[in-house]
Design brief:
Keywords: Cell projection, Cilium, Flagellum. With about 425 residues, this protein is α+β, with helices and mostly antiparallel strands. About 40% of the residues lie in helices and about 25% in strands. Strand 10 (about 355-360), helix 13 and strand 11 form a beta-alpha-beta unit.
Length: about 425
């Protein structure tokens, strides 16, 4: 099994006390009982002082409902105390599902929210239940809900569908090609937006890397990624904010998709456009800056013998001056290759010391990696980094296809391991 990995410890979110809302349920540990009915409670790694209405025991975990007063937060205990936090979580999840008349299929999500000490309301989980049960792919729906709550995103339908689209097993390159073919098949004269989108899609095919000299691959991959991020329009909203006073037309696929959708009547083509818009939006949502840790999540189309995607999850600490710190970060890569099949690479950098973990089922891969390690160590040293370890693990044999991809998504949400 891929084990829990501990890394960053900084709080990613704003002060919890100021963000809590009336009616929210929170789960935390009582650290100290104060005077006049006050207590210090640790929720999600943050200590807060609150007024409590029932006797509490120091060191115990409880579930509370939040009431905000003008100058204080009141925490009303919901659960029955237990010596083990796990039992309290199970008990509270079952209790809430029954009290709020939710299906038993919602209990895993409730347990997840309690375990991660994420605030939630009855209305939010009631809406989540509708999305969870709406379609047969409940595992995909469940992961979308986990990512939504864990990243404190709005509990909204557009957000939910965007986080589902990010999980699509169909390569992004394939989806882009299908849309290109659909636009090419439009009868009559294409609109300006349709023609611009077609041109951009055709231009992107030149970014795909295939049958290149192996010594040129790192430079080509870096150039490829930079070009694709711009071409896909993943910086669209940021560019809008920076160029709000100018009439310069923004290039990139996403803004062209939004324009082309308004000028397209064919339902099948509109559906293809909607799918891509949702997928790009999902990537942007998972790259939302909030706090001292800056996340980036991106899927880019590649051609390694066949169409595939490279999935990159990057988190880095921000310095006091706001700049990103390349010597304290983490990168996760996932892709499907013709020979190596499913592979994931986890690179952790702390104080310029690099730890690398590789997950793949290829026999003797560890030997090949060991042979390449001196060269990797030399190149990292020339950049100011020290290679500490390179570890190769096999993926769990009992898991199905795309298990590593699911773990990359889960890792982002703090489901399987913490960053």
């Amino acid at each position: 099994m891929i084990q829990r990995i501990d890394g960053f410890s900084e709080q990613r979110w704003p002060a919890l006390a100021s963000s809590l809302q009336n009616g929210q349920v929170v789960y935390g540990k009582v650290e100290k009982i104060g005077a006049n009915g006050m207590a210090f409670v640790r929720i999600g790694g943050e200590m807060m002082e609150a007024e409590v209405q029932t006797p509490l025991q120091v060191g115990q975990f409880y579930s509370f409902q939040v009431t905000k007063k003008e100058d204080a937060i009141v925490l009303k205990r919901l659960d029955v105390p237990s010596e083990r936090s796990e039992a309290t979580i199970e008990q509270t999840a079952t209790q809430l599902a029954s009290k709020w008349r939710l299906s038993r299929e919602m209990e895993p999500l409730l347990r997840f929210l309690l375990q991660k000490q994420l605030p939630f309301t009855k209305a939010e989980v009631a809406q989540a239940e509708k999305w969870l049960l709406a379609t047969p792919e409940k595992d995909v729906n469940f992961r979308a809900l986990q990512m939504m709550f864990a990243n404190r995103l709005p509990v909204a339908e557009a957000v939910f569908f965007a986080l589902k689209a990010v999980q699509s097993p169909e390569p992004l390159a394939t989806q882009l090609l299908h849309l290109q073919q659909a636009i090419q098949a439009i009868h009559g004269q294409r609109s300006e937006a349709q023609q611009s989108l077609l041109h951009e899609l055709e231009r992107m095919t030149h970014f795909l890397v295939d049958d290149k000299d192996e010594n040129e691959m790192p430079q080509l991959v870096a150039k490829h990624m930079k070009s694709l991020v711009k071409a896909l329009g993943l910086e669209y909203e940021a560019n809008i904010a920076k160029n709000v006073q100018t009439s310069k037309a923004l290039q990139g696929v996403k803004p062209l998709l939004l324009r082309a959708k308004q000028e397209t009547s064919d339902e099948a083509t509109v559906k293809l456009i909607d799918t891509l818009i949702a997928r790009f939006t999902g990537q942007q949502l998972l790259s939302y800056e909030n706090g001292p840790i800056q996340p980036f999540f991106i899927q880019l189309p590649f051609l390694f013998g066949k169409q595939t995607d490279v999935v990159i999850h990057y988190q880095t600490r921000k310095k006091q001056n706001g700049e990103l710190d390349p010597h304290y970060c983490r990168l996760l890569f996932y892709l499907q290759l013709p020979a190596l099949k499913e592979i994931a690479v986890d690179v952790r950098i702390q104080h310029s010391i690099v730890h690398v973990s590789i997950w793949n089922d290829t026999p003797q891969l560890e030997q090949f990696v060991s042979l390449a390690q001196p060269l990797l160590k030399e190149r990292l040293s020339s950049l100011g980094y020290t290679l500490s370890t390179v570890k190769v693990d096999r993926t769990p044999a009992e898991k199905g296809q795309d298990e590593l991809f699911s773990r990359i998504l889960n890792n982002y949400s703090g489901v399987d391991y913490r960053i």
